[in-house]
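call fold(seq) -> tokens
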Amino acid sequence: MIDAHFPWRFAVLISVGTSCAISANMLILTIVGKINSKLPNDKQISYLWWRLAEVKEQYRRFYPEGRLVLLTYICGAVMVLCFFLMIWVHP
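ret:
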């Protein structure tokens, strides 16, 4: 239960960090879907078992001007920053 001493900054950081984690996951799934739409069925990437380096390479090949990988990295960086700041903010 949240008591009166629970810092609101902690709640904001955990909310933003969790939102960024979910957003990064959704972006990766979107990237995999876009890649799979360009590949034949036998060469498609699994939605469950993928390597980030392979996904990034294929995405850059098919979408050289695409920004989804950059957005994924930004979400990941903000997520990590929020979780480190939670350590600092928590009493």
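Residues 8-38 form the longest helix (31 residues).
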